[in-house]
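cron nightly-structures :: item 1 of 1
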Amino acid sequence: MPARRGPAPDPNARRRNTDHALGEHALTLASGEGRALPKALGVTTGGAKRFWRTWASAPQTEHWLETDWAELELTTRLVDAFYQGDVKLAGEIRQRVGKWGATTEDRARLRMNFDQQAEAEAKKAATEATTDMDAELFKMLSES
């Protein structure tokens, strides 16, 4: 019989985090216009401007406080420097956006989920838009 390390487990042990003390964060798929990029940041690269637009209108920002927006400003400056050639900033940028739920894995770790009904509605709207565009294209080609 292998040697046991440490004390024996408590027979009455229970998990302390089963009630989701941190809670889950339900997100909608709706993305707004978000905030405008502050000119005082001095961002010059298109990649950093796109980064700002993406995050400023992301569903996660619905719950952001001023401190979160300040963090986005700092990270956008880092992204600007990255696009100017300072590639050693990539790891720092990845850590920062991971805390906001940038990837599926990050959102799972942070207990973020998208409202299933909103997701279904978004898929339906996308399908209808594609169908409308197809019908319009077919009509245009038929008239010629």
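cron nightly-structures :: done
The radius of gyration is 23 Å.
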